[in-house]
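Kindly inspect this today.
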Amino acid sequence: MTMAEVRPSTSTSEHRDKRAVFFGGVMPASAAEKHMAEQIGILLAASGFTLVHGGYNGLMEAAAHGAATKGGRICAVTLAAKCEEWGGFNPYVTEAVHLASLGDRLNHYFDQADLVVAMGGGVGTLHELTAALYYAGNIRPLPVLIAGPTALRLLDFLRREKWLFASPTRQLGSITEATDIAALAAALPAVTAGPKGGTS
């Protein structure tokens, strides 16, 4: 497929494709996590989601490769001013959105997302993952699946150190843990059916 340039959409139409945002770093923590990212891409595409990601290598490329094997749409969202510095997209990207600022990029991810799947990575992925947790707890109950041992250790740390906690105004029922691809596949129908009550 030829990659298409897509302008950011402000539409909230219920008829658009389902969009799953995938966050994962360029340096996979292990071969097992890279394999998991690929399986996530397969699962999301097979479930009818467009995969939305940063567009680059590592876990992002693994997820994109998985989605491509099922004929999925794969959208890269990047910063217009960083295209030359960050280099080309992975070969599975079918469409791209170039935005002016980091805030625009995060807003584009979350405002158009039906689901976020977050794995481990560097500080960029850390920023995206924690922004997703904040968004899901404070803006709207966007389902966030935390997948793989690296991201789950971070989630455990955030809870243990009280960086992440439920309150009357901050419900955490949108957060689901997935230790492996089987757990993620089992959780997917429930998290996409609507927000859960209570806390995770």
Summary: The CA atoms of residues 18 and 48 lie 7 Å apart. The chain has seven helices and eight strands. Confidence is low (pLDDT under 50) at residues 6-15, 195-200. The first strand starts at residue 4 and ends at 5.
